[in-house]
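sorry to bug you again but im stuck and you know this stuff better than me. below you get a single protein, a line of residues and a line of whole numbers that encode the local backbone shape. mainly i need to know what kind of three dimensional shape the backbone takes. anything you notice is useful, everything is just below:

***
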Amino acid sequence: MLETLTKTENGATLSDLALGTGAPKTSLVGLLAGLTAEGCLARDQAGRYFLGPRFLSLAMQAIAGRELIALARPILADLATATEETAVLGALAPETDPDADPGADLAIYLDKVESSNPIRYAVTVGERRELYCTALGKVLLAHFEPARLQRYLETTQREQFTATTMTASSELEADLAHIHASGISRTNDERIPGASGLAAPVFASDGTVIAVLLIAGPSERMRANGESNEQAVRQAAAACTLAMGGVPMTIQPKE
């Protein structure tokens, strides 16, 4: 049915779709009604169906996601080589709905290049993590719309994973404001004892955060190489932003 609709600019009637799919009209009516109600299809006054805004948005997200992973792969590899830590590409979990319970928001690992060090931070592609206690998640939270961030802070249940996990809303808000202004997220033993991370946003052409680049490793080693690691993460995120047609964040020098 969707293939039939992609081949026409003038939409398709119920009869056209029945003919194109080889299915009886009665089998299509309920499916068409559900897809139209969800915004995946649109129906005009003449009863013709078109691909709807939600379907087109999901298609574009899928295309952008695959393109992003392919473009970011060499940047991830260079970042892992430069820092000798595990480099990761992450984003907001795709099924996250801004109108749903914001406490259910999670980050997801899209790709990785692991460190060659025998003692290293290991991640699994597709794994999901909380936003409030990870370097990846905090970058995403720092760029939430204010109302959405407030809903998240009010509804999410924040577990005290370690002694340094931030759970108080006031403390977390202050940290997120600093991340938004500085363009870099730092976590120290907040989710897993002995593991720390650095992350920076990747911007799309419309200025929204499409993904996050980060490195993670043993806390002692991350602290020892903090300055050089931070510079490498910023440069990698800027390179990825440029590859996606976005404008890298400019950090004003301190006076």
The chain has a mean pLDDT of 88. The first helix runs from residue 2 to 6. The radius of gyration is 22 Å. The chain has two domains: 2-51, 61-243.
